[in-house]
Amino acid sequence: MQDIEKSAITIDRRYTVIFRIWAVLYRQRTREVKWPLPRPSPQDLKNAALAYILQVRHCATRLLSGGVMIRKWLAVPCVAVAIMLFFQCLHAEADITARSYLLVEKETMAVLAGKNYHEELPPASTTKVMTTILALEMLDGSVPITATASVRKIPPSKLNLAPGKSYKAADLVRGTMVESANDAAYALAIAVAGSEEEFAAMMNEKARDIGAIDTHFKNASGLYVPGHYSTCWDLALMFRYALSNDQFREIISEKYFLFKGERRDIRYANHNRLLFCFEPSIGGKTGFTRVSKHCYVGAFEKDGQVYILALLGSRNLWGDAVDILGQLYEKVPTKTELTMAKASALTLSSYKVPAERPAAVKKSGKKKVKRSKHRFAKSSR
Questions:
Q1: Which listed residue, of 95, 220, 366, 378, carries a Cα 20 to 30 Å from 76's Cα?
Q2: pLDDT tens-digit series, residues 178-189
């Protein structure tokens, strides 16, 4: 209560409080209005709203009792702004749909914002951060890896690896992180440990070494199975460890990845939209399954410091990410910018050129031209 009383402002002396509060409220909605003060946290807004309501109630009481504390024409705007601000602040945290989230400073692991960040939840494809860590530490990038017949059974998203064909480990690692390819993650697991079960055991051991004690992996891709879980705190720890690897930082910063498939070269765009529209973004990893909802872990830079954001169980991933990052940055991406940054896969060129057919032969009499039937490669989406 003392904090609320300290933050209260006497309305009869500062009529501009209405416009100041309106500016904060408007900025909270549009995230485009610049304000010299740092963006308040949800708790700060709640305290300010309660303090403001106390002042409005006090002023209204004086007005109704015949006092001259404020003019009559100011009473209605005061009450209206107070009610709007109160409900805006009351639902400031409710707007974040993620079941769990965490924003920390990388070196100290000091928490800037968070909710339920020690809750064990399915991490979806953010699992691939650990898969990539082990692959980079255990495999040379030039080592050829032959895809087994089992890659055909792996659910999307995929690079559509051809069984029996060899691929460079470096390409599979990039496919795992940039395209979030489940078949690439599986192929890496087989190459490192011989089986996905053994690889999962190695992942769990590495997680314990890093300090992620509330994490348990059962596969290399993050496809949902019971007993496969992590926490936002553990994801931040694992991503923090991975950032110490220069190769990892290079991979997560790549916006596009060119992969030579069985029939064509395909350019995949990174699923991390913030990489395309938010300059402080260093890189990150997205994830989604129907059970886990949207997940994310990534890093951002500001004033020479690195911050890590982790989210699990989100129904509005980029909206949640922007709301949380707004507590750290003055300017964050708009909804339009995030929509424009939506990742997609594009076919650049045909990998196998169709064989040329002989020219059509003209017959005497009626002139008929035989059309050659060429088949063109379709874009892969």
A1: 95
A2: 999 999 999 999
Cα gap 347→357, rounded to integer Å? 24
Q: How far is CA 377 from CA 262, 347, 350, 373, 374, in A?
A: 12, 9, 7, 13, 10
Classify residue 313 as left (phi > 0), alpha (psi -120 to 50) or beta.
left
The Cα 58–Cα 3 span in angstroms is: 17
Helical pair 196-210 and 128-138, crossing angle rounded to 10 deg? 90
Task: Quote the CA–CA distance of 373 and 370 in Å, as a whole number.
Answer: 9
Query: Which range among 26-40, 257-271, 325-339, 356-370 shows the weakest confidence by mean pLDDT?
Result: 26-40
Q: 136 near 247, Cβ under 8 Å?
A: yes
DSSP helix/strand/coil, 82: helix
Helix axes 232-242, 196-210, angle to 10 degrees: 90
Closest CA to 171 of 191, 193, 142, 199: 142
- Rounded Cα–Cα distance for residues 228 and 127 (Å): 9
Query: Which residues pair with residue 289 across a beta bridge?
Result: 293
Residue 184, both tokens: 């690439």
Asked if residues 38 and 32 have their Cβ atoms less than 8 Å apart, the reply is no
Class of domain 100-347: alpha beta
Distance CA 305, CA 137 (A): 26
Q: Which amino acid is at 159?
A: L
Dist. CA 167–CA 143, nearest whole Å: 8
Predicted local distance difference test score (pLDDT) of residue 342 = 77
Mean pLDDT across the stretch 201-213? 98
Domain-wise residue ranges, the chain? 2-90, 100-347
265 token code pair: 């070269």
In 3D space, the residue among 300, 323, 297, 328 whose CA is nearest the CA of residue 312 turns out to be 297
In whole angstroms, what is the distance from residue 122 CA to residue 226 CA? 9
Q: What distance lies between CA 318 and its chain's CA centroid? A: 6
